[in-house]
UniProtKB/TrEMBL annotation:
Pfam families: SET (PF00856)
InterPro entries documented for this protein: Class_V-like_SAM-MTase, SET_dom, SET_dom_sf
Gene3D superfamilies: SET domain
Protein name in the entry: SET domain-containing protein
Every SET domain range: 1-57
Length: 70
């Protein structure tokens, strides 16, 4: 099943994760009991002060426009 998570109006710090074609983290779904949660998981060492980015995926970019700056 597919689900959309919209963080436009509420959320935590993860709502500020921007897209990158060379991301240092990824959105990764986990099921916790009956809940589907999305975690932000590092895919490489991220030094303090580095912007955390993730690949939004083709579907998002096709729908909302190419935000890719690389
Ligand atoms: C989840 S929000 C990310 C946080 C947002 N930049 C902010 O300051 O609230 C997603 C939105 O951020 C912007 N965005 C994300 N990645 C971007 C990028 N690489 N270049 C330009 N805009 C980006 C787009 O407007 C996108 O719809």
């Amino acid at each position: 099943p597919k689900a959309d998570i919209d963080s436009e109006w509420t959320g935590n710090w993860t709502r500020f994760v921007n897209h990158s074609c060379e991301p240092n983290a990824r959105f990764w779904p986990y099921r916790v009991g009956n809940h589907l949660v999305m975690v932000v998981e590092a895919v490489e060492e991220i030094l303090a002060g580095t912007e955390i980015t993730a690949d939004y995926g083709k579907e998002y970019l096709a729908r909302y426009g190419p935000h890719c700056l690389c």
